[in-house]
Every structure is written in structure tokens, then in C-alpha cells.
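User: hey, got a sec? need SAF domain-containing protein folded
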Amino acid sequence: MQGKARTDEGKRRTTVEAPASPTLTAGQRPAAAPARAPQRRKRRPAVLALGVALVAAGGLGGAALYLTTGQRVPVLALAHDVPAGQPITADDLTQVRISLDPALHPLSADSHVLDMRATTDLKAGQLLTAADLTNDPLVLAGQEVLGVSAKPSQLPSAGLTAGTWVVLVYTPSAEGTGTGTGAETLPTPGASAPGGRNGGTGTLLQSVTVRVVSVGTPSASDGSVVVDVAVPGDQAAPVADLAASGKFAVLLAAPGTKGGG
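Assistant: Yep! Here you go:
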């Protein structure tokens, strides 16, 4: 019996009683579970460096854009209209300050453009670019300058300017006004005139393409004007005879014809 009593007493000692749940009264909230300590993220130096580089690149790009589009610089512009072929003078130029634009390519204010010729009709206020000017000579080696006096009816209504390519065409039905013999007795280059020293047979000079060097002021009496043209040296004599006869017309050369157009 004593052994059984001891056994019962041992069981009572080893039995663990579950703790009773706390009783909540009105207005009380259950105790919050203890917060977990936040885990620290691992830093990635490569990602951090990339972010810094992107920020720096963005700042440099913005600065470059400001400098190219916001900075105002002096450039050349036209103070007056300049016809195609005319040389640029100091009075034709003015300076303006503009904000640089990658799409624009105006000449800087310190560009040397005096005496260069306009490649096209230039308008007042227009910004001057390299494509607007040329240094190509009007008179090439081996050429001679010949003055041709022409009446308004012999010239194109569009007018002529230096550098324009024109065609002098023989017009046998026109009434001659000069002392020239006319194209019917003019030899082509390399041929001798009738009765010449070489006894050759002349051929008709129907037309010749030349380049305008300058245009004079129209006469107050009849409106005639002297047009200086550059003529190949071997054609100077026959072209001069044609011009003296007055039996010619001045045509604008077709585009692509020896620089015409």
C-alpha cells in the first residue's frame, strides 16, 4: 500500500498544469506579440555606383543642353538683300546674337566673307551660312572678258546677275544695230574665216554659252545695258563680232548646262 501511495504522489508531482488564460475585462486589448527586430539588407556597391553614375550623366547632359541651346552667340546676318552672284560687302552684313541650335549652322561673327559671292538670292535678316557663299572665280584661266551691249528686248525679264550662265544665240532675222558682220561669217573655234590666211571655210556660230561677270547700269535713253561675260580665248573674236552685229538674244542657260541654272 505504501508503494502505491508513493506512486500516486509521484504522478501528482510530475503532472504539469496548463496556465489559465488571462481573463480580459471590457476595454482591454490582448497583449501584442513582441516585434521582430528588422533584418538589415545587404548593400550592393555596384548598384550604388551605377546610380551615382546615372545621376552624374544626367546632370552633365542637362548642362550641355543648356550651353548649346541657351547660350547666345554673335553670328552674321544680312542687312540688305544681295542678289545671286553679287560680292558681299561690309554694308551688307550685320551681327545678331542667337541661341545656338544644333539644326542651324550660321557663320560666326568673326568669319571672313567679304568679297565672296552669293550663290543664291539672299534676303535682309537672313542668317548667313557657308552654303550661301562661294569663292569660285568668275573668270577662269584662258578666258577673256567681253562687254556685250544688249537692249531690254534681247535680255530675259528675270534679269542677270554675276555668275549666271547664259547663251548668246544668233538671230539672223533681227535688225542689226552694230557694225559686225553677223554669225553668217563667224568661224567656230579652230576654223579659219573665209578668205583667211589659211584659206579655210568658215562655219556658222549659232550659239555660245558664257558666264556673266558683271552687269552695268541701264542707259537712261533706251534702257540698253552692257553685260560683261567670260568667253573662252579661242572664241573671243567671233563672239565679239556677233555682239557687234546686234543680231543676238541672251537666254538663261538650262539647268545643268555648263553650270547653267
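Quick note: Residues 45-70 form the longest helix (26 residues). Let me know if you need anything else on SAF domain-containing protein.
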